[in-house]
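From the shared-data thread, chain only:
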Amino acid sequence: MTGFGKAESTVGNKKFTVELRSLNSKQLDLNIRIPGTYREKELELRSWLSENILRGKADLLVYYESLEPEKRMSINKPLMELYYRDLKEFADQVGLDGADMMNALIRIPDIMKPESADIDEDEWAGLMSVIREAYSRFDQYRKIEGSKLKDEFHERIGKIMELRRQLNDPIRLRNEKMRLRLKTNLEELIPPDKIDPNRFEQEVIYYLERLDISEEYHRLETNCVHFNDELKGESQGKKLGFISQEIGREVNTIGSKANDAEMQRIVVQMKDELEKIKEQINNVL
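Structure, as tokens:
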């Protein structure tokens, strides 16, 4: 789910800035950008972040500003000495002036080497403290987002429940129209005095049973209540996703049995609310 946290602090002679941000994603996709000096700690850091972030496309950015001059390169003196002897010997043999020998030496590969960058454990501990502070702010941001998301879920489930109640009148009218349609069609083929009332009622019951949604109607309510109950505790995205699938199954079955324009209109509205719920479930841990 979305989140952002930033922290700054001075550790030794360095001012560290840490940013942690995430976007929505079903899985954890963690990207770490950290100065090369601390690269050997990346696996440890990645493991710690994975245990805490759990889900989202997350980026950790760590950079620093040196408050004192840093020596980044050093001279490989033993190697330089060997090259110097060879160059001087060659210069003496051919009678060359050795004035530019220093310029030639520093251009030789491996003469200049990076300064040794062993990690200072005290400095790393200080940096981890800054990272934990950024994570704390990041987590607080996500909790605020989660609270808003919970309110949205309650609102959309409430709309589905209201739309479910709006099915009552269309169901009753549909059944009446079905009865009238069957009677009209039958009377076009058979004189009214030849129609067996009992057989007619049996046929009506047969057709209405095929369109009956009473089970789906009640299971839809049960699943919506279950969804809201899960929101009261420590909700898990996978569990809410499963319940939303069950809600969708009941809504789809009601739609397939509707055989009525008004009922179909209500079903489309329920599906629209449910799709918005499913989109946001990807943001729930």
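The chain has three domains: 3-70+120-142, 73-114, 146-281.
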